[in-house]
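Predict structure. Chain length: 245.
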Amino acid sequence: MLAIFKKEIHQFFSSITGYVAIILFLLANGLFLFVFSDTNLLDAGYANLDPLFELAPLIFLLLIPAITMRSFSEEFKSGTMELLSTKPLTGWQIVLGKYWACALIVLISLIPTFIYYIAVSQLAAQPGAMDTGGIAGSYIGLLLLGSTFTAIGIWASSITSNAVVAFLVSVFTCYIFYTGFDALSKLPVLAGGFDYYLQMAGISFHYNSISRGVIDSRDIIYFFSVIGFMLYLTKVSLQRRIWQA
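Prediction complete.
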């Protein structure tokens, strides 16, 4: 598993694509937070990072599929998946090696955003008076969200040898998980109780809960359950494709 992990990290950063993806993520956040008038933190009148935690999930919808789309699709396309399957590795070791590598890349893309926290904290009327606990909870929520999107992206890459198709499937699935259930819950025909449970099935419900600074075990269990389920589907898809080959 460690060998696969190192291979994925090296492969991602050995080309300009990896650097461009992370730079674009940071650039997009920077433009929305400090340049564009509708979301400009400097014009908001109070020191917080709420716009970051509202915008980052939407940017993640494009960034993470771009990171994960080649994980398995390139292996299938180049024919190296058959070679990899002959190594003394279990299906879980292959899946987890690629998953943790992509999750680490997502974490690396998040680390520079701490600069935003430092900048806003220093620009506040009372430097250092920001709600550090709430921001820490929001970062935990964003990390769990990114980890979940990564698991979905890994699964999407395991079902096709076309990286572009994997990207599109990942974007669509992440979007459905993030906003689809919430949108369905607002249908009048579902009002009266079932709408609440439908909301709970979506990622945004649990992400927004954690982003308020409240770390609820139910939200943590939800994220880990979705991650585990998607990784299980990835393992099943991987075994089926190897068997068919």
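Summary: Residues 76 and 210 are 38 Å apart (CA to CA).
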